[in-house]
Design goal:
Layout: E1 2-12, H1 18-28, E2 32-37, E3 41-49, H2 50-62, E4 69-78, E5 86-88, H3 108-114, H4 158-165, E6 186-190, H5 201-210, E7 215-218, E8 223-228, H6 232-242, E9 250-252, H7 256-262, H8 267-274, E10 280-284, E11 301-305, H9 310-319, E12 324-328, H10 340-347, E13 353-357, E14 369-372, E15 377-381, E16 391-397, E17 400-402, E18 412-421, H11 431-448, E19 454-458, H12 464-471, E20 476-480, H13 482-493, E21 500-510, E22 516-524, E23 529-535, E24 538-539, H14 545-548, H15 550-562, H16 572-575, H17 579-590, E25 597-598, H18 601-611, H19 623-630, E26 644-648, E27 651-655, H20 657-668, H21 673-699, E28 703-707, H22 714-726, E29 730-732, H23 744-756
Parallel strand pairs: 2-5, 7-13, 9-11, 10-14, 17-19, 19-20, 21-28, 23-27, 28-29
Antiparallel strand pairs: 1-3, 1-4, 2-3, 6-13, 7-8, 8-12, 9-12, 10-11, 14-15, 16-18, 17-18, 21-22, 22-23, 24-25, 26-27
Helix pairs in contact: 5-9, 13-23, 15-17, 15-18, 18-19, 21-22
The structure holds zinc ion (ZN) (2 copies) and fe (iii) ion.
Length: 760
C-alpha cells in the first residue's frame, strides 16, 4: 500500500548536511517526495510503501549527520501525489534559517584528503565540507548561503561548483567550499606586515617556531600567538611580550596519545578533546609531565586542545611538534585580533611572523574552555564550537536581550524555546571590549532575526553592560540581582520551575542593599528571591584594590574579628606585614573610606590564601582561590574549622570568627599548608550543607541549585554536591553554560522573560 507522510523535524538541521542525508536515505529506499528548509527546521514529504516509509522515519533518528541535533519530530499522513523522484527544494528567500551552525573542526574525511598527495586539495589549508569548517565566524547575514559569508569574494571554480550542486557529494551546499584554484590562500608576513611568502609559508613558519620565535597564526575566530611549548625560553619570551604573567597558556597537541604524555586523560576527557567543538580541556598533569612550569605556574592542570583547522594540522605535522602554545592573539584581556591589518598593528610587538590568509573572519570567537567531571563536561568558557547553538528551554519565552555582567561577559537572546548565548565577549572594564560587546549583540540579533521585547541587566550601577542597557529607549528594562541570575541560570538550564534553594558562591555581585554579595543562600524562583543566609559582612579596604591584593582581605578579616590585637599574633603573615601600610588600610576601614562591605565567598578564599602564605597579590582573576584549591595536593585531613550560624532578622549570618581562630592555631603550630587548605575547604562544604538542611526544614524544598564562579573549584563543588545528594537533596549544577559570570545572561533572560509573561 502506498502512503505519503509529512515529517517536520526541528532542532539543528540546517547547514549540517541534513538535506543530503535525507535525500540519500530516500533514494536508497526508492521513496519519492521532497525536503525543504523552514523557519523551524526542515519539512520532509515522503511517499512509498508504508513499510519503507516507516523504516525511513525510524532511520532519521538512528544515524543523523554528526552535527545535527533533532529536538522534535512530528509526522502526518497526507494525500498521495504523482511524482517520480525525491527532490531537495531550495528554500524560498526569507524562508528564515534560524539556527546557524557553529564553527566545526575539520572532519576525518577532509583530513584524509588534506594529507593525500593524490587529492586535488592536498595540503590546502581551507579544505572543508558539509560536515566541517567555518560557519558562525564567516556569516554576515542570513539566509546562510555563500553570498552572505566572507567566502562571497571567491567565486567557485567549475569543479567546486559541481560538488556544491550534487546532492550525492559531501560538499553539497557546503557554503565555504573551495580549492587551491578558486579559494583563499595562505600568506606569511614579517612583523611589519611585509609579504615574505615566497616558498611554503607553513614551512617557514615551522622554522621560526623551531628557532624559538613567536608566530601569529590566523585561526577560525581570531589570531593565536604560537610558540614551541617545549622551549622554555620561547614561552618566557611570549609571556614578557604579551605581558601575561602566570596566567596559564593553552597547549595544542596533535592527538590524544600525545595529550597522555603530559596529562591524565579520562574517557570523558578524550571525548571532549576529540569532539567537533575542539574546546580547550583542563586536565591534571601526568606524574612525569615534561611541560615546563612556565606554561601554567603553580597549577595542577594544563589546558590542552587538539588541532581544529586544516592549518593547525599542517603546522603540527610539518613541524613534528608535540606541543605548541596557542594563546589568543591579544595583549592581556583585550579582545582577540581578527582582521589582518588590525592584527599587524596590534600584534607587531608580540609576534615575529604572521601566518595569515585572505578569508576574512567576520566575528571574533575565542576558544572554549571545559573541564571534564566524572559524568560529563562543565563549561568554563562557552564560545567557539558551541555558539550559536541554543540552550533549549522548557517552554517558549518572550524574546529578551540579557546583557550579562562585567567580567567574562556574554549576552543572551531568547526566542521561543531557544536561548542563544553569545560567544565570550570578555571583561567590559577593558575599553577595547566595549565595541565588541555592541558588535556581538547586533550581530546575534541580526543573524537570529530577534527583536527583543525586553532587556535584562545586572543591578550594579557601574557595570558597562548596565549603563548600556539603561540608555536603550522604548523597551521594557528589567534589572536583575546578580546571584538571583546565577541561580535562575542553573534553573533554566535544568528546566526547573517553582522554587529552589539556591547556593550562589562567587567573587562579586551587587546586592539589593548596595553591598557586595557573593556567599549567598537564596530561596529562589524566577519571579523573586529571598536571602536565607549569607557570609558575614567585612570591609573590602580599597574596593577593587582588595580584589587585586588578597593580603588586604586577610587584614580586613583579622581586624574585624580581633581588632588590633592581631598585630601580636605569632604567625608568619603578621610578622611580614609592613606596619605603615597596614595602618593606612585600617584607617580607611575605620573611616569607611572606599571600603564597601562584602559577603563574598571569593574574598574569603582570598583572605585565607593570603593568611596561610599562598598569595598576597594576584595577576589574574581568582588566582589566589585557584592556588588555594591546588594547594590541597595529597592532603587527606578530614578536619574542619568551625563556621557558625547566627539568625539575624529573616536571614542567617555565617560567622567566620571561630574559623579564623582555629586557622590561626594551625598556623602557630606550623601545620602544613595542604592540610590547612583542605580543612578550610571542608569547613565551607560543611557550613553550606548545614544551611541547606536548615533551609529545607524551613521551606520544605528539597531541590538545591549550585551556581557562581566558586563552583569552578572542583574540590568544593564535588564535595558539596555529594554531601547534599547523600542527604537526599536533589542537586542541580550547570554543565551547558558556565557556572561563573559567563552564564549570568541566561539567568537574567529567564527572570526577565518570566516578568513579561501574563501572570496568574
Ligand atoms: Zn569535512
Ligand atoms: Zn575550486
Ligand atoms: Fe558572579
Amino acid at each position: 500500500m502506498q502512503v505519503r507522510r509529512q515529517i517536520e523535524v526541528s532542532g539543528i538541521v540546517q547547514g549540517v548536511g541534513f538535506r543530503p542525508f535525507v535525500f540519500r536515505l530516500a533514494q536508497s529506499r526508492r521513496l519519492t517526495g521532497c525536503i525543504r528548509n523552514t523557519s523551524a527546521g526542515v519539512t520532509i514529504e515522503v511517499q512509498g510503501s508504508s513499510n519503507s516509509v516507516d523504516q525511513f522515519a525510524a532511520s532519521l533518528l538512528v544515524q543523523p549527520p554528526p552535527l545535527s541535533r533533532i529536538t522534535t519530530i512530528t509526522a502526518l499522513e497526507i494525500p498521495i501525489q504523482s511524482e517520480v523522484e525525491f527532490r531537495i527544494v531550495t528554500s524560498e528567500a526569507g524562508g528564515g534559517c534560524t539556527l546557524i551552525s557553529p564553527d566545526i573542526a575539520v572532519c576525518s574525511d577532509c583530513l584524509h584528503e588534506l594529507l593525500d598527495p593524490a587529492d586535488r586539495r592536498f595540503r590546502y589549508p581551507f579544505i572543508n565540507c558539509t560536515n566541517c569548517g567555518p560557519r558562525f565566524t564567516i556569516v554576515r547575514a542570513i539566509p546562510y548561503d555563500r553570498a552572505s559569508t566572507s567566502m562571497a569574494v571567491f567565486p567557485m571554480c567549475a569543479r567546486c561548483q559541481a560538488e556544491y550542486d550534487d546532492p550525492r557529494n559531501r560538499r553539497f551546499h557546503a557554503q565555504p567550499n573551495a580549492c587551491p584554484d578558486c579559494g583563499p590562500h595562505l600568506k606569511l608576513w614579517d612583523r611589519s606586515g611585509r609579504n615574505i611568502s615566497n616558498g611554503d609559508p607553513v614551512r617557514r613558519a615551522v622554522d621560526a617556531l623551531r628557532d624559538g620565535q613567536v608566530v601569529a597564526v590566523k585561526g577560525l575566530g581570531g589570531f593565536h600567538l604560537a610558540v614551541d611549548a617545549l622551549n622554555p625560553s620561547a614561552v618566557r619570551l611570549l609571556r614578557e611580550r604579551k605581558r601575561r604573567f602566570e596566567k596559564p597558556f593553552a597547549i595544542m597537541v596533535p592527538d590524544v596519545e600525545t595529550a597522555r604524555q603530559f596529562c591524565e586523560v579520562s574517557d570523558v576527557a578524550s571525548q571532549a578533546l576529540e569532539s567537533a567543538q575542539r574546546p580547550i580541556v583542563l586536565l591534571p598533569r601526568a606524574p612525569r609531565c615534561e611541560m615546563s612550569d612556565e606554561i601554567a605556574p603553580r597549577n595542577r592542570d594544563l589546558g590542552i586542545f587538539l588541532p581544529y583547522t586544516p592549518l593547525h594540522h599542517l603546522l603540527l605535522d610539518q613541524g613534528k611538534f608535540s606541543a605548541l602554545v596557542m594563546t589568543s592573539g591579544n595583549l592581556s584581556e583585550e579582545p582577540i585580533a581578527i582582521d589582518n591589518r588590525e592584527a599587524v598593528q596590534r600584534l607587531n610587538n608580540l609576534a615575529d611572523f604572521f601566518l595569515a590568509h585572505n578569508r576574512d573572519i567576520l566575528l571574533r570567537c575565542d576558544d572554549s574552555v571545559v573541564r571534564p567531571t566524572a559524568t560529563g563536561i562543565r563549561q568554563l568558557r562557552r564560545s567557539r564550537g558551541f555558539v550559536p547553538v541554543p540552550v533549549f528551554l522548557k517552554d517558549a519565552q518572550p524574546s529578551i536581550l540579557a546583557v550579562g555582567g562585567e567580567l567574562k561577559n556574554t549576552v543572551c537572546l531568547t526566542k521561543g524555546k531557544h536561548a542563544f548565548l553569545s560567544q565570550h565577549i570578555g571583561d567590559l572594564e577593558n575599553p577595547a571590549s566595549y565595541a565588541f560587546f555592541a558588535e556581538a549583540t547586533d550581530h546575534l540579533k541580526n543573524i537570529l532575526q530577534i527583536e527583543p521585547e525586553g532587556i535584562a541587566y545586572d543591578l550594579h550601577p557601574e557595570y558597562f553592560s548596565t549603563k548600556w542597557a539603561l540608555q536603550q529607549k522604548g523597551i521594557r528594562l528589567v534589572g536583575v540581582q546578580h546571584h538571583h541570575a546565577h541561580i535562575a541560570s542553573c534553573m533554566a538550564e535544568n528546566h526547573l520551575e517553582g522554587q529552589v534553594i539556591g547556593i550562589a558562591l562567587d567573587g562579586t555581585g551587587y546586592g539589593t542593599d548596595g553591598q557586595i554579595w557573593g556567599g549567598e543562600v537564596l530561596l529562589t524562583g524566577y519571579a523573586e528571591f529571598e536571602r536565607l543566609a549569607h557570609l558575614e559582612y567585612v570591609p573590602m579596604p580599597g574596593g577593587s584594590a582588595a580584589i587585586r591584593e588578597p593580603w588586604r582581605m586577610a587584614i580586613s578579616y583579622l581586624d574585624h574579628h580581633f581588632g588590633r590585637e592581631f598585630f601580636r599574633f605569632p604567625v608568619p603573615f603578621v610578622r611580614r606585614l609592613e606596619h605603615r601600610k597596614v595602618e593606612v588600610l585600617l584607617r580607611m576601614v575605620e573611616q569607611s573610606i572606599n571600603s564597601p562591605l562584602t559577603s563574598s565567598c571569593g574574598r574569603l578564599f582570598d583572605a585565607v590564601a593570603a593568611l596561610i602564605g599562598i598569595r598576597q597579590k594576584v595577576n589574574y582573576e581568582a588566582q589566589a582561590a585557584i592556588e588555594l584549591e591546588m594547594a590541597i595536593g595529597n592532603s587527606s585531613s578530614h578536619a574542619c574549622y568551625p563556621l557558625t550560624l547566627t539568625p539575624k532578622g529573616d536571614a542567617c549570618i555565617i560567622s567566620t570568627c571561630s574559623m579564623f581562630e582555629a586557622l590561626l592555631d594551625d598556623l602557630k603550630k606550623d601545620v602544613a599548608i595542604a592540610d590547612m587548605s583542605r580543612r578550610f575547604h571542608n569547613s565551607v562544604v560543611q557550613i553550606f550543607f548545614d544551611v541547606a538542611e536548615r533551609s529545607r526544614d524551613e521551606t520544605g524544598l528539597n531541590r538545591v541549585c549550585l551556581s557562581g564562579g566558586a563552583f569552578n573549584n572542583l574540590y568544593l563543588s564535588n564535595r558539596l554536591e555529594s554531601r547534599l545528594s547523600s542527604a537526599g537533596f536533589e542537586v542541580f549544577t550547570q554543565s551547558e553554560v558556565p557556572a561563573g559570570d559567563g552564564g549570568l545572561s541566561l539567568g537574567q533572560a529567564a527572570i526577565a522573560a518570566f516578568s513579561l509573561l501574563p501572570q496568574g
